[in-house]
Amino acid sequence: MPVITRPLTGEPLPLDLVNTRWPAQGGWIDALEDWHAEHAAALGGTTGLEQLRAARQAIRRALEEKEYDELNAVLAHGRVRLEMTGDGPVETPEVDDEAWRGAWLAARAFAELVRDAPPGRIRDCEAPDCILWFLDVSRNGRRRWCSMSGCGNRAKARAHYARALGGQAP
């Protein structure tokens, strides 16, 4: 199976997970299996794809609808055990089923991202046909598109075309 080139990479893990499914050419592309292979070590290696799909859907619903029941259901599969060692405190994730480890880690990373990101910096792309999410780390906090080379250029081209037509929409 060929590796699918995703339109946006390099985002924090939970947003990167959400961005593994996008519309294209009248259908949907799902790059979850490639993403799983790429992140297998960070996810504990034994993560189930169905559990990752559940986490991806839960995070998307939390982002788009501010609906947290599905996310809380994923988070219910694990907890963090805190221990003191000679080097200081150590957190150890524990899950009720190893198949949920990666999904739980992604859900936890999302909760931490929401807690730690500056307010309003977790955004969806403003392009009307784009469903990708990103963390705006720009200095001025005004990033509007998932990528300037893709959605940003298309938006600027549409605006230029509309100006050239005297303000009429294309």
TrEMBL record:
Q: Which domain of life is it from?
A: Bacteria
Record's protein name: Zinc finger CGNR domain-containing protein
Ranges for domain Zinc finger CGNR: 121-163
User: Which InterPro entries did the record assign?
Assistant: ABATE, ABATE_dom_sf, Znf_CGNR
